[in-house]
């Protein structure tokens, strides 16, 4: 059976293309990393893909706000092509900076703004403090990206990851059951005594879906959690498994997201 093919956007400061490509190949797909300018010049190459991914990074140095410049470029040069791509039975994901890009391009609603403490009363205020740690997530909805997953622990790394939207939009997201990922207190946060919500995200939102679940935007990085040795407490777990006489796993939680995407086409 032919493997599904992924096109991973690159250019202008995106910097997790290789990890994303590796994760998809580990899950059983083929993948190409393609500069956005090459896609603008030859948009027909999107016809070769079943999945498009906008990976993490710091596009345009976040100088105009995270994902804004890249999102504008995407919208004005490839907006119609992306809509045509999504008119097929395809998948699309935006990870971290990629989530910021696809919200700025209007593919998903809302915005990702500067991090602030969870207790901050003003939804627009933010410290812009860069946060790099692991988080625990609760999974809801019916996205093929998240099939069979109830909870998952994966890392974040961002300075502008607080999900923000007007009250009406938040209510609509909740009523349509498209708030796919929420920050919760789980094993990882508990192990390191960290707050569940790392950035003050409204409704604890870490990711949302669109297009009947086929489009996923999320701030955490599943591509950084595909190997057991990437877990923040893997040495502790290794000792625990050893004492119980259990075999060490090779994979990590994030890999399932990529497997789900691949299996959607198999």
UniProtKB/TrEMBL annotation:
CDD domains: GATase1_FGAR_AT. One of its GO terms (cellular component) is cytoplasm. SUPFAM superfamilies: Class I glutamine amidotransferase-like. The keyword Ligase applies. It comes from the Bacteria. GO terms for biological process: 'de novo' IMP biosynthetic process. One of its GO terms (molecular function) is ATP binding. Keywords: ATP-binding, Cytoplasm, Glutamine amidotransferase, Hydrolase, Ligase, Nucleotide-binding, Purine biosynthesis. InterPro entries: Class_I_gatase-like (IPR029062), PRibForGlyAmidine_synth_PurQ (IPR010075). This is Uncharacterized protein.
């Amino acid at each position: 059976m032919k493997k599904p093919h992924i096109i991973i956007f690159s250019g202008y400061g995106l910097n997790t293309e290789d990890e994303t490509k590796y994760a998809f190949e580990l899950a059983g797909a083929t993948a190409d990393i393609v500069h956005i300018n090459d896609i603008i010049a030859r948009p027909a190459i999107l016809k070769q893909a079943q999945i498009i991914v906008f990976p993490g990074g710091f596009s345009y140095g976040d100088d105009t706000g995270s994902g804004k410049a890249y999102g504008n470029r995407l919208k004005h040069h490839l907006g119609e092509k992306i809509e045509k791509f999504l008119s097929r039975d395809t998948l699309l994901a935006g990870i971290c900076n990629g989530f910021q890009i696809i919200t700025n391009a209007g593919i998903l609603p809302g915005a990702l703004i500067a991090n602030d403490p969870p207790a901050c009363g003003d939804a627009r205020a933010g410290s812009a403090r860069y946060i790099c740690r692991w988080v625990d997530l609760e999974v809801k909805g019916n996205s093929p990206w998240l099939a069979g997953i109830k909870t998952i622990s994966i890392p974040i790394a961002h300075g502008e990851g607080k999900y923000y939207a007007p009250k009406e939009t938040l209510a609509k997201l909740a009523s349509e059951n498209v708030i796919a990922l929420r920050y919760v207190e789980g094993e990882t946060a508990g192990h390191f005594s960290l707050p569940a919500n790392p950035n003050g995200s409204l409704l604890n939102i870490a990711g949302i879906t669109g297009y009947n679940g086929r489009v996923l935007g999320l701030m955490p990085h599943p591509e950084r959690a595909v190997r057991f040795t990437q877990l923040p407490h893997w040495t502790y777990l290794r000792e625990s498994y050893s004492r119980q006489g259990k075999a060490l796993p090779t994979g990590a939680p994030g890999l399932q997201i990529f497997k789900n995407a691949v299996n959607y086409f198999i």
